Structures are given as structure tokens and as C-alpha cells.
Amino acid sequence: MIRSAIAAFGDTRMQVVLTTGYQELPSELAPLPSNFHHAAYLPGRAMAERCDLMVHNGGHGSVMMGLLAGTPAVIIPTITERESNARRVMALGAGEIVLPTNGADGEKRIDVGDFSAKVQQVLTEPSYRQSARRVADSMSKLGGIREAADRIERCASLNRSS
Predict the structure, then answer these.
(1) 18 is a domain residue
(2) Looking at the domain assignment, is residue 6 inside a domain?
(3) What gap in Å lies between CA 117 and CA 98, rounded to an integer?
(4) For residue range 38-88, what is the model confidence (pLDDT) as tens digits?
């Protein structure tokens, strides 16, 4: 994913924030292009709220963070569960998916041209941001973690009373 991002967006006008989840950046990728900014970790919600687009692997946390922030996504899923999440984001109109293929060496690869085209599509077509914001608005009306905890407590107390 990192190699494809560098190939597609290195030394362009686009500013890319790359997080690696406390994993080292592979030495063969250094130095990064001047428009790439690497950090092991950044607060997800704060970044999602400030981004025009999130590119991620479709994990539950990344999907939910992007939807809560109303930020559209291009998702590159690496396992079946993440592909399912990506397809749900697509169905909501809040993103696109780029499916990796297995290279001859067994390493997952993505088509750089397809990846670049999907990123440009999501960035330039307003319906993706509109859909992501619609989902965020809908989610905000549900009450979040506090409401979920309250409902669980009410349900648990009803079961104890029975």
C-alpha cells in the first residue's frame, strides 16, 4: 500500500499523511517524497476530521472513524472482513474500493493507475463527501457510546428483574 501511494502521489501537490501503527517504515522506502509526512501514530478522529480523504485497509476502527468524521474513503482491504467493510462503505456512497491481487512472489499488490483514479474520483466527485457527511449526521443522532452503554445497562437490568 505504501509503495503504491508513493508511486501514485509522490512529489505531487497532494499532501499525504502516512501512519504505520508503531511499525517501522521499511528502510527501502526512505527517504519519503517531500509531500509525505510520516508518523507512527496520530489521533484517528482528529486526523479524520481534517482530511479530505482517508485511505486505509478497511479495518473496523478506520471505517467507523471515517464515517463518524464524515470523511470519504478509498479502501484497500487485505482480508475478507475488511473487504466486507469496504463494500458496505461503497454501498453507502461514502467511498471506493481497490482490490489487491497476489503477485508472483505472494505479496499483495494494487494497480497504481486504478488506485490513483479512485482517489481522484472520490476527491473530485462531491457525492462521496455528501454521503459520508449524511452517514456522520445519522450516526450522531444515535447517541454514541454513552447511549449504547445506557441501553446495555437497561437491557441487563430488565434481564435481572425477570
Answers:
(1) no
(2) no
(3) 10
(4) 998 899 889 999 999 999 999 999 999 999 999 999 999 989 999 999 999
